[in-house]
Amino acid sequence: MQRKLWWKVGSLLVGILFVVQLMGCNNTLSIDKSSQNKSEAVSNKIGIVDLEELKAVHPEAEVLKELNKQIKDSQINLEEQQGFLNLTSQNREEHLQSINEQINKRLQDIKSEYQTKIDERVEKTKEELNAYKESFKQETEEKFEQKKREIRAGLDQKIDKRKEEQSTELQDYQQKLNKEYNRKILNLRLKLQMLDLSSKERKEYQQQLAKLETERKEKLAKKKEELQKKLQEYVSEQQKEAEEKLRSYHQKLTEQMQQKINNKQEEANQELQNYIKEQNQLLQQEIETKREELTTKLKNTIVETEEKLDTNITERNEELAANLEKVKEDRNRLEKKINEDIKERIAEVAEDKGLDVVLTNYSSSLSATNITEDVAVKLKE
Predict the structure, then answer these.
(1) Which of 48, 67, 81, 109 could form a disulfide with 368 if both were Cys (CB 3.0 to 4.6 A apart)?
(2) 139-181: per-residue pLDDT in tens?
(3) Which segments of the protein form a coiled coil according to its record (predicted)?
(4) How far apart are CA 353 and CA 371, in angstroms?
């Protein structure tokens, strides 16, 4: 019944909200037909709201909920009383047998309340688990990145050290070559400069000099190439070793993360099962207590009804009906107030955001600004 009522209110508010767009947003929707004809390319700024969510967060939502509960209880009481009016000596046993059906109507609300608690706890547990997974995943990624930096720094240090060692080795080798060739090269150069040589002799000395210099240069180049090859092999080997360390560390982190998540999930599931078990026990206790209470009350009422059928029941019905009407009036006034509050806050937010239209019924493909949260904030002010 409450769902149908809210559906009617939601339908009513569609009209109200379009009034909001015309009257509340002076800077946006004071457009007449002539301005609309200026350009079809100008699009309305559209806002959307979730009416059910706004009604749920309204400061007086709980009061409205309680009034609806009172109405429901009163209607059940009236139905029971109407049944009592038809009670006669012949059908007394029949009414006594229908007590369970009447009691079950009362107990169904209790069951629904406990089921709601359980559903909320299940949802909360899911959210907590997801938050834990995300937090632990982020922590694991940070540890992995830190390890990667450490391994990379160690690799760079090893490579730099090997380069320094090879540089020293190359310098030593170059000095060795110089010691081996410099004297011979110097002697040939002095002969070319100091001696009076024939063309043939000069040419022979020049060829010997060129040969020695080429040999020294080639040996040095060969040594450089040899060292460079060794360095590349060393770097490749160290990179593979570093990658293996990183892979092993990542696997270890992943296994630890999964184990902790599994433990947390088992712990959460156990807590949830305990909570459900506890709520079921409380539900059974409350149902048993309420059933005994209602059984006694209804049986006594049937007996009293049989004794005072013409007077008490009629008066009770009138009292219940009057009370029901009063509660309905209170409920209607409160619903109207809540709707007015929501309409006013929507108008304020729409004007602040420069919206032309605010819709309550819309498709998911509509390009619009959702102002539900902004309106909710204003409702709570």
Answers:
(1) 48
(2) 999 999 999 999 999 999 999 999 999 999 999 999 999 998 9
(3) 61-344
(4) 9
Cα Rg of the chain (Å, integer): 46
Per-residue pLDDT tens over the stretch 21-76? 333 333 332 223 233 333 332 346 899 998 988 888 899 889 988 999 999 988 88
Q: How far is CA 184 from CA 143, 179, 189, 199, in A?
A: 62, 9, 9, 21
First to last CA, the chain: 30
* DSSP per position, 165-231: HHHHHHHHHHHHHHHHHHHHHHHHHHHHHHS---HHHHHHHHHHHHHHHHHHHHHHHHHHHHHHHHH
Is 338:317 a contact under the CB 8 Å cutoff? Answer: no
* Concatenated DSSP letters of 294-314: HHHHHHHHHHHHHHSTTTHHH
> Distance (Å, rounded) from C-alpha 239 to C-alpha 159?
10
Domains in the chain: boundaries: 1-41+349-381, 88-308
φ, ψ of residue 357 to 5 degrees: the values are -135, 140
Task: Tally the residues of the chain.
Answer: 381
Q: What percent of the chain has pLDDT over 90?
A: 36
Structure tokens at 355: 């919206």
User: Which segments within the chain are labelled E, that is strand?
Assistant: 46-48, 357-359, 369-370
Helix axes 99-194, 61-85, angle to 10 degrees: 150
Give me 13's structure tokens.
Answer: 């508010």
Count CA within 13 A, CB hemisphere, residue 1: 10
Number of H helices and number of E strands within the chain?
A: 9, 3
Q: Please, which residues have CB within 8 angstroms of residue 206's CB and are 6 or more apart in sequence?
A: 192
